[in-house]
Every structure is written in structure tokens, then in C-alpha cells.
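Q: Here's a chain of 284 amino acids. Please give me its 3D structure as C-alpha cells.
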Amino acid sequence: MSTERYALADGASLALVRAGDPDAPATVLLLHSYAMDRRVWHKVMSLLPEAASVSVVAYDHRGHGESSSADSSTATLERLADDLAEVVERAIPHGPVVIVGHGMGAHVALVMAARHRLLAAHRIGALLFLSTSVGWVAEALPRPLGRLAQDFHAILGPRLVDQVHRRIDKATTIGLRWLLLGEDPEPDDVRLVAEMVSWHWPDAVALFRPALDRGALDTALEAVAAWPIIAMTGEKDRLVPVGHPDALQGHSVTVPGAGHMLPLEGVAEVVPRIVAQVREALAR
């Protein structure tokens, strides 16, 4: 998969990848979570085209991964939702779109549906939310660490932050394995999660934290009430307790033994659910 630079209307660009059949009747659009990037979907992007005739698209949100940087004015769910609307309208020119959102990615999808109701009504066919809660959930790093990231950068400055960053890998990996992954995770999954979070520490972690603190999404649910929704949660998720996704008004599924990183550790359960949502979208 080659990476595209997708230009947005305001001059920013997103790092975007595609897989599957570009002429397929439906597209699956994968939205990653806070302090992650499109790499979290690598297993899904490998397996999904073998399971269904679909086009698959994933990109790094603004301020994440290899996409353009964000600042305090653009590090908001609203701005990310507007970016998503541009991708749906211009980068996926035909057919229904099934959005799969992990954590913050699901929040972005909900806000987009509320802000761009006509576009969403015409193009969004179904939704699948992974490890997501409507109310506040301390995604990816607890609240004290989000504040620490801000203080860390302000006190030490960027040069010393870079030096410390290179020395916290082992501690970061141990802590993130406990926080984000479930029972007996694969070593490659642990390494990738630690790499993604470390990549976004402390700048993106601190920058996007206020957006998540303000992330009450109850009103956005009205915009998606008519769509097929599946909400999946890991049994061992320490950030989204089992039962929280019930408020998403969809069909709730619990993945035994899994933690917060369902795109990685729950891929065997996630891919069939995506295929089911594609069928729902094409049947509407």
C-alpha cells in the first residue's frame, strides 16, 4: 500500500492509504483513535479485502502520524469531523461508506454526522464503533498524564523532551501493555502500541486532550439514529467498561479477553462484523 497525500481545503494534508478493490460497490473507512495513527489498522486492511469485495481507506487524523500538524485552533473534534467530511465527499466519490471508528475515531464520525447531516444521510451506510463511549472516557492515557504532557513540554523544552522521550521506551511499553491491551497480547501488538503512543507524546497527547475533555456526544447520536450501528468492547478494556457502549443505541458486542486495542487484538472478531455492516449498507 502506497501512502497518498490528500490535500484538504484549508491547505493541510492527510496521509491516506487504500486497499481492496477501488471499484467495489462500498467503501470501508477506518478512523483511528487518540494518540494513534493509521498503522493500528494494518491487520484489518490485510484481512478485510480477502473477506469481502470492498474498497478500504484509512488515514492519519490531522495532528497525528504523517498528516499535517495541528494547533490549538484545529485540534478539535469539529475540525477532525470536517476533515472526515472532505474525505467522504471527495476521496470516496461513489457508493455507501461504512465507517469503523476506534475510540476517538468514533467520536469524530458522530460529530461529522451531526455537522454534515445531508452528506452523511446520502453517503454513510453503517457504523461500527470499537472501544468507544459516548461520555468522557480517558482514552489512551489517563487524565493526569495528559496534563503531565503539557507541563513536561513547558518545563523542559523541546530539546530535553526529545532526550527523555528516547529513554522512556521500556517504562512506556510496560505501562501501555497494562492499560491498553488485554490477556496475553502479541509482542508485536505491544510494540506497535508503544511506538504509536510514544510518537505522539507529549505534543499530540497534550494538544488533543481538551477536545476529549469536552467530548460529550449525546446530541450527535440523534444524527445517526437511523443507521445500523454495532458497538464492540473488549472484555478487559480498562478505559471503556463493558456496558458503556449501550448508550450508542446499537447492537453491543463484547470480545472475550480483549483490551482497548480491538483493531489489533480483536481483529478476528472485528472483520466479520465489518463485513456484516457492509452488507447492511448495500441493502439499505
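Q: Can you summarize the key feature?
A: DSSP finds ten helices and eight strands in the chain.
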